[in-house]
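Reading a protein record of the kind used here takes little practice once its layout is understood. The reader may check this reading against the record printed directly beneath this paragraph.
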Amino acid sequence: MKESVLKKQFAEKDIQRIRNLVKGKSGDRTLQGVGYTKKSSGEYEEGDIWEEEGKTWTIRNGIKENITKLDTFKQVSMPLFCPKCNKVMSRELDSLYYKNYSHCLDCQMKFETKLKIEGKWESYVVEKHNNEIDELIKAYNSFIDEKLLESNNGFITEQGDVEKWVGGLDKERIEQARKETIIYLESQKKQIK
């Protein structure tokens, strides 16, 4: 019988790769890499602002972001990954939860389940409801204050005519209506049982 002779020379990296595979260490390196990594001037924390390579950077919700003119759009748009659990976020399911809670649906479900297990769910719901009413009262007061500052001396119609209106705002009646509305809204608040 004829003996087969291997006539190919293996490189050291190939031998090392085979050894790693046999030992079950498929992720280990076989070569030493050489490269350059720019040292950052330091570790940054939430809210820090710094300049690097002509761009201004900050850290928001644990994510490094550059500061641009479109920052308001960034706050409205949803990121690709949940800032809390780092899972991919779904546009259909997670968009509403991200706008309200700044994390995905799964994180919100875990949070709510934890509250229910600890027996704090009812107080959480009541607190959320009362906070919404407080925000509504604040917006209502702001609206009334803004309307009281407006003048009704004249209006310009669609045709361009200036109309002068006689009369004025009955400020006492407006303040009375404001008080009654706030009393009604306060009565809609729930009490923690």
